[in-house]
């Protein structure tokens, strides 16, 4: 019989799959070998840690259900399959049993109640208001970059968020255009940025370092290249950064021609450089451009070549970016690049 | 019931049809109001779109097989995932489900056709033109101004990306109109199924004696009416926004993006049940016949289905855990979502109990149902993980979600639909499919499915969001994405074997006879394929398994029900 021959191959496969699935999930929960800067199972801030605790609880419960029901299924498949030497008689017809129906209704209900209570507790914990001493940051999502404004500190920057370690930061989420989502997996779950619908979340990273993430709600052509970088710094470093960011633009005579070209072309319609006539708000604030490690929402290192290429034709780095190629000639391009490189 | 039903001659008409000129035969198909012909057209049309949607998926997987790949531009990639999702849900899954219901419900309840044959044809052609309209965007979307392009707003098309400011040209209009048109078709068919089941059952078939297939399709049809209507309303509102100066979803004029989400998901989540309940319906027919046992706990199965539909209408906002709802609202949707797991679990246990103590014959339909049970178990458990809202704040919109819903739709629904194809192919074509090819299809597709969708969970856990056309190296996502892409090769091979089997068997398959599976429901009493009038004499039933009664007069079901 064909079917019996084939089915004997099915079991090892099913088992292997089950083992693989669980090895994979337990490895992710435990081991640093799954090294990813965006691993949700390597939490570094209270909200992410609460979520992690709940995740492990849910994984254990669902894992147990998987093993129990999966084994029953495997057992039924092996034990009750038709055999060669079977007679042609039909098996006993069983129409049902109220006792077992009640059992497999009540037990799942109890599991659901337990899961729900554990979940509701974490929801309440994470969704409570941030502590009073929190640093306040407003994040504004744009196609396809992030604007950061620190209302109390008079700092405006883009794409690279700086916050102090060990202290809570309250993040207000707004959008200038379409929906976006702020997701730095090691710090917290994601929260959407929706126009006309302000949201709030909070984080309190406990170790300094660079935390990565990216936009998690499809927002248009370059949704993929809207990366998040969160720099968690010691209080002293953070204070120093704030002092430096709240100064006006450095003016240097060496780049005066580039500045003139910058201010005479359409650049100023979208970009701001504090202390100059450039006051656009459509694109990132460039006042302290050179203090940032990356350009174009984290996709390229902020060096001379990339900056020049970006000014020349943004679509070479990021096709679909809303910044147009200004069509500058070689001379003007070099001058504008030189000017931007003085904005520290 | 008369024994001569089993030997009714119904094949003469078919022979006659084959001899007539091609144009005549085509004309007959285009103008037909016969539920079986319409059912077949639904299914063929869906299979065609399955190939198209599969090609779109393949393009995406090539692009994502390694970081920073340049196989397609971001614009093309965004169109691909929009078209893939829209096509697979609206023009593959829905027509497959409707095609099966159309073909089988009248046969199973002993009726000669659907209640409204002309409405049936009208609904089919609306759905068919909806699909054509969607793909016409590829040439027509920008009108006469230049080359067209396909919609690129994602299959749930969140506002305000769909507004005129962010979506210029006409691609979004093609998307809107195509779903509106096919949505009316779906509502028409749903009404037809409900009326057919309520009014045309043969003598003796009380509601409690209907095959589970008919019961589950009745519930599905009810859900279609409840779910598709808000979607159609939302599409009309979006068109008003885009063309008549409305501001429902136009955030720049004070509209609400969140309202669109509510409208979409109060359709979108019940839609999952619209698709999965007919898959359950297939499993509820195939598993008993191939285990040689009556379905375990028939009344509980019906009750669980109704419960899933009922609770399923109140879970939609679990798609919106990250939009910033209050903790009370979040908790409500956590509870309602988790509650769905209870009736779903009951169904799985009842199928298991049906297999328990049986003599399971692992022919292709049963193999696919066994795969379905395992995969649906996993899909249900990952669903529970995401129903815990805080866990969803991490998993939502990541590749974990993509893996989860493909586990439901491919591992659950598509596996059952393959089972249905193999199970009813003899009835529909009059010939047996090739069992070896059927098993080859199963194993290829099973391997491909698990390579792709098991490993797709992992990049999600490592922070990879969905709908990105490329990704950065150094995030630990590369290897997993490569494995996921490799799985596509096996799935595609499986589909080719499937198509070859259908075509080859149509011409060369063994003649099936009326009842090749020794089955128990009414469709197996008539000839294969059934004559236009289905039954020469309307049958009369006494139990849920009329053919069991006929074959076992010493031990009939009606004594126990």
Content-based structural category of chain A: alpha+beta
Give the oligomeric state of the chains in this entry, treating copies of one chain as homo and distinct chains as hetero: heterodimer
Question: How are the strands of the biggest sheet of chain A laid out side by side?
Answer: 3-2-1-5-8
What do we call the CATH homologous superfamily of chain B?
Cytochrome c oxidase-like, subunit I domain
Tally of domains of chain B: 1
Uncertain ranges of chain B: 1-13
Largest interface: A-B, 106 and 109 residues
Helix content of chain B: 55-70%
Helix content of chain A: 40-55%
| Average pLDDT reading of chain A | 90
Q: What is the makeup of the main sheet of chain A?
A: 5 strands, mixed
Counted beta strands of chain B:
0
The second-level CATH architecture of the largest domain in chain A is Orthogonal Bundle
CATH-defined topology of the largest domain in chain A: Helix Hairpins
Weakly predicted, low-confidence segments of chain A: 1-9
What is CATH's topology name of chain B? Cytochrome C Oxidase, Chain A
| Beta-strand content of chain B | under 5%
Shape of chain A: elongated
- Determine Rg of chain A (CA atoms, Å): 28 Å
Summarize the structure in words.
The complex is a heterodimer of chains A (344) and B (561). Mean pLDDT of chain A is 90; it is low at 1-9. The N and C termini of chain A lie far apart (78 Å). Chain A is of the alpha+beta class. Chain A contains ten helices and twelve strands. Chain A has helices spanning 2-7, 10-30, 46-79, 98-127, 235-245, 256-264, 267-270, 304-312, 314-317, 330-340, and strands at residues 135-142, 145-150, 155-158, 160-164, 169-175, 180-182, 191-193, 199-203, 209-214, 227-233, 294-295, 300-301. Chain A has three domains: 2-84 and 94-127, Orthogonal Bundle (Helix Hairpins), CATH 1.10.287; 135-245, Immunoglobulin-like (Sandwich); 253-340, Immunoglobulin-like. Chain B is built from 16 helices and no strands. In chain B, helix 3 packs parallel to helix 5 (117-140), helix 4 (74-108) packs parallel to helix 13 (399-429) and helix 13 (399-429) runs antiparallel to helix 14 (435-461). Mean pLDDT of chain B is 94; it is low at 1-13. Chain B has a single domain, classed as Cytochrome c oxidase-like, subunit I domain (Cytochrome C Oxidase, Chain A, Up-down Bundle). Chain B has helices spanning 12-19, 22-31, 35-64, 74-108, 117-140, 171-199, 212-243, 257-291, 298-312, 327-355, 364-387, 389-395, 399-429, 435-461, 478-508, 546-551. Chain B is globular and about 70 Å long. Chain B has 561 residues and is an all-alpha fold. The chains are: A alpha+beta (344), B mainly alpha (561).
